[in-house]
Design a protein that fits this description.
CATH class of the largest domain: Alpha Beta
Largest sheet: 5 strands, mixed
Helix content: 25-40%
CATH topology of the largest domain: GTP Cyclohydrolase I, domain 2
Strand order of the largest sheet: 3-1-2-4-5
Shape: elongated
CATH superfamily of the largest domain: GTP cyclohydrolase I, C-terminal domain/NADPH-dependent 7-cyano-7-deazaguanine reductase, N-terminal domain
Distance between the termini: 29 Å
Order of helices and strands: HHHEEHEHEHE
CATH architecture of the largest domain: 2-Layer Sandwich
Length: about 190
């Protein structure tokens, strides 16, 4: 999956697909209980996939003025994403940090937004970690950077091996931190 923006959700087509899915599952989409479900599901997926319309370059602009080049690390940023293989959620937390370099320093909320940009897409955890790391590296040009995602995958809990509660950890480090990572990335 690329970082190219996706067209907006075609809500009428999404609603029709949900109606067809309900019918294929032996359900009556015209019943009072399910009549509004296609619209609710289309709205849910429009929100869930909003990251495709977000551009990390928009948020990763340096703050004005001279700031000390000290490590900036945000820990335990919560996220929920959707497995592209099963359309099942996976959720966890991200630790994202960098040692400012040529690209300067950004506001702390921008790192949260960066995680959201990639979480709110059809995704796999490994690619999401790489996309966040690449965005840091490309847009901030830091002396060091790190990304760690720890998530629980419902596709693993509810199908296949049916083993709930097993966290998956993905860690990427670059620059000076590759050889000597700070404590949050160990």
């Amino acid at each position: 999956m690329s970082d190219r923006p996706r067209p907006p959700i075609d809500r009428p087509a999404a609603e029709a697909a949900v109606r067809a899915l309900l019918l294929s599952l032996g359900q009556d989409p015209k019943s009072p209980e399910l009549a509004d479900t296609p619209a609710r599901v289309a709205e849910f997926w429009a929100d869930r996939l909003a990251g495709h319309a977000m551009d990390p370059a928009t948020d990763l602009k340096p703050l004005p003025g001279e700031l000390a080049p000290v490590p900036v690390i945000l820990e335990r940023i919560p996220f929920v994403s959707t497995c592209e293989h099963h359309l099942a959620p996976f959720e966890g937390h991200a630790t994202v940090g960098y040692l400012p370099g040529e690209g300067g320093t950004v506001g702390l909320s921008k790192l949260v937004r960066l995680v959201q940009t990639y979480a709110w897409r059809l995704q796999v955890q490994e690619r999401m970690a790489q996309q966040i790391a690449d965005a840091l590296r490309i847009h901030l040009r830091p002396a060091a950077w790190g990304v760690q995602l720890v998530a629980i995958h419902t596709c693993m809990a509810h199908r296949g091996v049916k083993t709930p509660g097993v966290p998956v950890r993905t860690t990427l480090l670059g620059g000076h931190w590759e050889a000597n990572p700070p404590a949050p990335f160990r």
